[in-house]
Design a protein that fits this description.
200 residues, alpha/beta, seven-stranded mixed sheet
Length: 200
């Protein structure tokens, strides 16, 4: 299998941060999003950003910006579909998704998702920790994109409702000092991320 393409999901509403793009908030020497790019980029064969609205606000990243093809805010599955459609045009067989507000995602996310699919013989893999599944961190086959499109058209919004219907492998990650899928939802979370980054 060729290296999967990476899609960073940044289509959320960020209501607990007062709206706007959480990923563009400053963190360390860059932004939350730049931390995600630095961690995911080396693991994938190419990278794109799923975001809605004016794409020029991300122009300095130099990444393709993929908008949802589903009207209204349809949640992360719509971002997965946008990524799968993009990957199909690139001739890729799989994508790996990551949330744009998770600056400490594992540096071995992609190989462990691939290993989980191979080990369990399932088409999809999701990351898990002792805190549960992290459904925005997954390995998704392009061949399921039309099935996902139908599911979204029928009103499916919950990630695991769709993934479990196809069979889902689990890639387990340890929680050491903190959950590697820690995500920034509030100003307090951002302060905590800055503290963790300082001690990382």
């Amino acid at each position: 299998m060729m290296a999967p393409l990476g899609v960073i999901l940044a289509g959320g509403l960020a209501t607990r941060m007062g709206g706007g793009d959480k990923g563009l908030l400053p963190l360390g020497a860059g932004t939350i999003l730049s931390q995600v790019i630095d961690r995911l980029g080396p693991q994938v064969g190419g990278l794109a950003l799923n975001a809605n609205g004016d794409p020029t606000r991300f122009a300095d990243l130099g990444l393709p910006v993929l908008s949802d093809s589903i009207e209204g805010y349809a949640g992360p599955l719509a971002g997965v579909l946008a990524g799968l459609d993009w990957a199909a045009g690139q001739g890729a067989s799989h994508i790996v998704t990551a949330a744009a507000d998770t600056p400490f995602l594992p540096a071995d996310l992609v190989p462990r998702l691939l290993l989980a699919v191979e080990r369990e013989g399932k088409p999809i893999a999701l990351a898990t920790t002792e805190n549960g599944r992290h459904p925005t961190f997954g390995l998704w086959p392009v061949v399921l994109r039309d099935d996902l499109r139908r599911a979204l058209a029928e009103g499916v919004r919950k990630v695991v409702l769709w993934t479990d219907g196809h069979g889902t492998a689990s890639a387990e990650f340890a929680v050491d000092r903190f959950d590697p899928f820690f995500n920034v939802n509030t100003p307090e979370d951002l302060a905590e991320a800055a503290r963790l980054l300082g001690g990382a």
